[in-house]
Amino acid sequence: MADHLTEEEQIESLKRWWKENGSGIVTGVVLALAAYFGWQWWQGKERSEAEAASNVYQNFVAALSANEGQPDNKQLTTAKSLGRELKDEYSKRIYAAQASMRLAALAAETNDLETAAKELQWVLDNADDDALKYVAKRRLASVKAARGEEKEALALVSGSVPSEFAALYAETRGDILLQQGDEEGARKAYEEARAQLLPEQGSIGQLLELKLAKLGEGEQASESEEKTDAEDSAPAESDKESDAQ
């Protein structure tokens, strides 16, 4: 009898516990299931969207690469349409930024600097990839300089940047300053670029040497050395005169 009462008490205790806590447990289970299936849905959506963006980008590249990189008007129209689709439907995907960069380069090649600037500005405003944004900013500076907007161009390539872009940005500053007729400023910028070159940027170094040579860096160095030699020899001549007296 005592055992039977104990079981009844346990059952009643369980009922009371379930009444007090059961709804919370059910809610927790429901939320956990919702989170799990929500995560599964989100991952599936991400994969599906990434695949769709990748397919559009592949078609975009194919259109631009047609005829060995010389697409006709119809193919160019297709590429531009696909580029707009990437930017409208998948703006946060890297494919959209890459497409915009290629469209900017295409526009610059045909001297459509306004379109090139718009495409590069789109990358700066929408891309999540920092490295790509640094590349876009430097190219935008070059485009603005070509449009006669040197002040804005210089602002884009001024300030601190990661080491892998330091030499490139300094070189672009030199190009803009040279365009403004500031040869001394350009020379200093090129020298700064040379000093910040990374080992893997050897090809940039060769171009910098050519630019510095055109500015007569070698001639200036020779003049400086001659001046130093003259200054060094002056005391010696004075000493000779003193000895003669």
Keywords:
245 residues; mainly alpha; Serine Threonine Protein Phosphatase 5, Tetratricopeptide repeat; 10 helices; 86% helix; 0% strand; disordered C terminus
Outline of this structure?
The protein is an all-alpha fold and 245 residues long. It is built from ten helices and no strands.
Number of helices: 10
The overall strand count is 0
Low-confidence stretches: 221-226, 233-245
**Rg measurement, Å:** 34 Å
Provide the helix percentage. Answer: over 70%
Could you give the order of the helices and strands? HHHHHHHHHH
Integer average pLDDT: 82
Any idea of the CATH topology of the domain at 52-149?
Serine Threonine Protein Phosphatase 5, Tetratricopeptide repeat
CATH class of the domain at 52-149: Mainly Alpha
Distance between the termini: 139 Å
- Shape summary: elongated
Strand residue percentage: under 5%
Oligomer: single chain
Main sheet properties: none
Based on secondary structure, the structural category is mainly alpha
How does CATH name the architecture of the domain at 52-149? Alpha Horseshoe
Structure description:
It is built from ten helices and no strands. The protein is mostly helical. Among the domains are: 52-149, Serine Threonine Protein Phosphatase 5, Tetratricopeptide repeat (Alpha Horseshoe); 157-214, no CATH class. The longest helix is centred in the first third of the chain and has 68 residues, at 2-69. The radius of gyration is 34 Å and the shape is elongated. Mean pLDDT is 82; it is low at 221-226 and 233-245.
